[in-house]
Amino acid sequence: MxxxxxxxxxxxxxxxxxxxxxxxxxxxxxxxxxxxxxxxTINVIKTACGICSPNCGxxxxxxxxxxxxxxxxxxxxxxxxxLCGKGAAGGEFLLDSDRLKYPMKRTNPRKxxxxxxxxxxxxxxEALDTIADRFRFYMEQNGRESLLFCTLPxxxxxxxxxxxxxxxxRIDHIDVCFLTDNIIQRYTTGGKQWTNDFENSKYILxxxxxxxxxxxxxxxxxxxxxxxxxxxxxRFAPTYTATSKMSTEYHNIRPGSDLAVALAMINxxxxxxxxxRDFVGQYTNFxxxxxxxxTHFAQYxxxxxxxxxxxxxxxxxxxxxEFATTRPAIAPAHKKxxxxxxxxxxxxxxxxxxxxxxxxxxxxxxxxxxARGIPLAGADAIWPPPPYPQKLGRRVDGRxxxxxxxxxxxxxxxxxxxxxxxxxxxxxxxxFWNNYTILGFPFPRHMEEAMRTVEFSVxxxxxxTDTTSMADIVLPSTTYLEGxxxxxxxxxxxxxxxxxxxxxxxxxxxxxxxxxxxxxxxxRLTPDYFKKPDGAWLNPGELLDEQARRANLGENFAEFRxxxxxxxxxxxxxxxxxxxxxxxxxxQILVPQFAEKGAEPLPKWHPKRDQPSAEYPYYxxxxxxxxxxxxxxxxxxxxxxxxxxxxAIINPALAAKLGIIxxxxxxxxxRVGQLELPAHLSQTLRPDCVQVAHGFGHRSRLLTxxxxxxxxxxxxxxxxxxxxxxxxxxxxxxxxxxxxxxxIEPL
Length: 747
Prior knowledge:
Elements: H1 5-12, H2 29-32, E1 42-48, E2 57-63, E3 66-72, H3 85-88, H4 91-94, E4 104-105, E5 120-121, H5 124-142, E6 147-150, H6 156-165, E7 169-171, H7 179-188, E8 203-207, H8 217-228, E9 232-237, H9 242-246, E10 249-252, H10 258-271, H11 277-283, H12 290-297, H13 302-309, H14 313-325, E11 329-330, H15 336-339, H16 345-359, H17 379-382, H18 403-408, H19 413-423, E12 430-434, H20 444-452, E13 456-461, H21 466-469, E14 473-476, E15 485-488, E16 497-501, H22 514-525, H23 540-550, H24 557-563, E17 565-567, H25 592-596, E18 618-623, H26 637-642, E19 648-650, H27 652-658, E20 665-669, E21 674-681, E22 689-693, H28 722-727, E23 741-746
Parallel strand pairs: 6-7, 6-12, 8-9, 8-11, 9-10, 12-13, 13-14, 18-22, 19-21
Antiparallel strand pairs: 1-2, 2-3, 4-5, 4-14, 15-16, 16-17, 18-23, 19-22, 20-21, 20-23
Helix pairs in contact: 5-22, 6-22, 7-16, 10-13, 10-14, 10-16, 13-14, 19-20
């Protein structure tokens, strides 16, 4: 029975006289007032997503201070009014019940995923003082090389802090992502670009590229428009996905053999003189090295490539001719699938870059083009710092053996554990992990072992990941929905566009941003780098004001935020000069600087690292489901409900051969480890492969939705040493994140 004023008195035996008498019952009046006639306060806030790099525009509906809905914004260059499932579920990152809420310190000295850290709540002041004291101690006793920062460069203040410390060992995940293409594009076309003009292309060639299935809205929209405009889309991949379905033609290629097909296509285009003669003649170094180029690619015939790839030679030759003569044409490269899966990924992205150059569509409609952006002044330009200390010390990951990777200052997840355990054991004394979990590493068991050797670790994150469970100090991070920033469009950017990121909620609990941490640690450890000329401390809000003002987005950030977005329509004028390394101002097919640095000036055939054998007869494939972003969204309640775990995906023909039925537990075994998980039968992959989704197998017991669910796909993938990469001509530092073969055993 519900409680009303009337039945309350009946239950307590109240008399009529009590209705008019003052007394204790007046305390209940607050519970029996009629509903307020005042309408709820509803605000619509325009901001930008922060789940993946396109940062699609978001319209957030906030009712009485509580987030209700996220949807796309019409006119936004990237989302074009749409959000993917991850973006639409973003509110659950903000409201996750498992969120880290305040700083904590460890009381249990034993470290491991199965250990209770014995967390104790502490203040931000104690946390920051402790970190500063320990970092100072290790730098004084062991030098700057003893500090490890596992983090992207991040906010300008965070980069300034690391530079001010003279940090030698900053490590990030780019080698398991796009490091190889970043290196190749610097030398062949002038820089890594994310801009692909699919909608104006007439021929799109995809080597494993799978961004439709990954729900990358900005690219998926482009492919849809291209098909509607009559473009032909050809895809090579060992798996049939949503991208394959959107393609005109699909070839079920042997894993790791894409390079052979790309080399053979270059052979056909050059030997038959099908390349764009005007572009190649004016804007490339083909004429300077024509003899060497023709001789080099003559060995890579379609018949040769067919035997390695299972793609018919006639189809390879036909597709090469179509690609070269159906203009404009494009062959995109994005991240992991092309750029990091195998030991030969550097050569593959070099070959793909050459295909685009031969098609004559570098910075041309229908091709890869340079983003027309809005430059933002960095903190160092606005408030020039004192000279930074020289970064003296040893690279724990051995990246110094890969000079091209060293130039771009990215990586190396794939060699870090080897460096900490074998190359320089005990060198790393303190570590700062910023929103990274060890699931992103090849063979994470080695990384777990390496983390135990570090005397003092800090982890900053939104939720209690595996990495936080190994830390001594944990710092709670804000989400993108609680922060501000200026987002310049760089995926669909034929003319400049900038969007304002603004908070839809104040920072929850005691969460703080990495900019706050940088500033506070800077005050304690490198104060001279965080003061303005008048002696006042730098301020993140003032940085945004200056950036907005200098970019003519508004008098200050508040004015820009009120606009929400700034568009600067302008005609697209193709480049006639290309800022390649070396100063030639031309696209480079043969890269002479590579030879000077011990690398291959033209891409050569190299097989993938691990090949099937009698002991391990099946190719091992991993993938990132479109439902999730790598290993960071599995605890999101909405996304977890859709896909809570992973399975071993096996072709029904192979399953029948091995006596495996749907849902049966199987054991996958590679040369470094084994996994046990249920089988899922699907026609979507070749019968000589098995496939496992990445991002599952979180070991943290504090993750109530993702913890202890599924397996870590990386436990079957060997990690490597820098020497391994040098020996294999992996000069671009591809992490080989999928380069493994396995045995399959029914259980």
